[in-house]
Design a protein that fits this description.
heterodimer; A: 305 residues; mainly alpha; MetI-like fold; globular; B: mainly alpha
Amino acid sequence: MVLFLFRRLVVALLVCTAVLVFAFALTRLSGDLAISIAGPNATANDIEVVRKAYGLDRPLIEQFFDWVGRAAVGDFGQSYFYKEKVSKLIFDRVPITMTLGLVGLSIALVIALPLGVIAALNEGRLIDRAISLVALLGQALPSFWLGLMLMITLGLYLGWLPISGTGTWQHFVMPGLVLSFSAIPALMRLTRSGMIDAMSADYIRTARAKGLSRGSIILKHAARNAAMPVVSIAAVQLGFMLGGSIVIETVFALHGVGFLAWESISKNDFPTVQAVVLLLAIVYTLLTLLADLLNAVLDPRLRAS
Amino acid sequence: MTTNKIGLWLGAVIFVGIGLIALFAPLLAPQDPFQQDLTRRLLPPFWMDGHNPTYLLGTDQLGRDYFSRLIYGARISMMIGILTVIGSGVIGTAIGVVGGFYGGKVDDVVMFAITTRLSIPLILVALAIVSIVGSSTTVVVMTLGLLLWDRFAVVARVATMQVRTQDFVAAAWAAGCSHFHIVLREILPNILAPLAVVTTLEMALAILLEAALSFLGLGVPPPLPSWGLMIAEGKDYMFFSPWVITIPGVALCVLVFGINLLGDGLRDLLRTGRTT
């Protein structure tokens, strides 16, 4: 168990180091950062001034270690565009993105788990096929388009939900629903296959032989075992959702981390872009670590291997 | 069994159909998709009142024929989908086969590369790269190709591990074949089937990502008729003329749904093929 934990931690640390290098290299892709910052109308002199001011005249290695050293203590520098500390910019927007992610995950679970169980209990029958077809169709919906269509139907025609903004909890329903769509097919398939495996296991036969009711067998015995992989995938899906929220936050004008990322990308605000890429990668890595730990705690067999 | 076959065929028909539309776009489009006419802006499609029979699906905010733009848009989605999976397929398969074939330390490095790639936020990084390098169809294809190799690598790695232990590979070893020969002649042909399924999934993903990038203004540049870009351009008019976003959105859904059906059908075909 300790060895398993240690191995996972080492890998997570290595991944974070690799992402550090990646996030730094990403913003240097343009060749000369000073030209990009100075803008299209800058003179050669302006560019030199920018280069000096942002410390871009130093060797790349020095710039990298300087950035890493500061990032390690939570200082991501000053935003070029907002003229504010990047760490504060991000910190202020985390609650909105987290709310959106958690609402999205909750909706996804509420829809995916029952559908997965129903599909599994009717394996091979028409209803099973219908459910997987719906999931496949859901997967084909572009999230930004689904968002706009919901705005037109639920927002404009029916007037049930506000179209954009973050004022009340109702504002999170539509974006949460759109975000949940990306996770539903994976969660549903996993629940379905987990349930099918569980229902054919020996302990289910024993439970049946004992004369337990069908409902009790499904809920207490099969669903509990089928839920294990779903829990871990849900954590990973939350990581994907936080990354994917950039599109949805832009569509619904939710001023979260994703919206900040999109704005900073279009404004060539590189310190902010770097920081968001790094933070999202770290959050994802932590979530997968959490998922593995949960699995290890729930399933003693995994600890041994 | 039969319903699966229906899905597979329906998916194939949609994919090949849209592929043919893309290929013969210049012959099929009734108008020039770039020709603007500000006197005929936002004409409604044929099922609505006040439509003009010359413009089957109406016109956009610049008076361009929507039907012709939709047809040319198929070219962009198809081209990006196919070129991306060629790039990411080669990269991912190479990485996965090497990891699965050699195992041990090499495989650790491969697993590490896959884990790192998965931790990188996909859309955000794609947006950043396109923004920094400059938006063009080539840049979008290169970016997506360099990012979407993870699932190819995962599947190729596991499939290679299974094939590696088989007798015909042992025979090739015994015959003194080189590593390169064994990978190319013995391993690759036997892992193509699962990779074909991944190809469909990744193509669908690439098409959706291109649409999202173009929608956010950092994908295919205007005036190209990318379906994602058409939705972005129509967004300001969607409350009064909803069809400007409905039409390209439905086209996108149909294409991606078709490709996913094809992939699902292929997977079922493989599964039944293996058990019998």
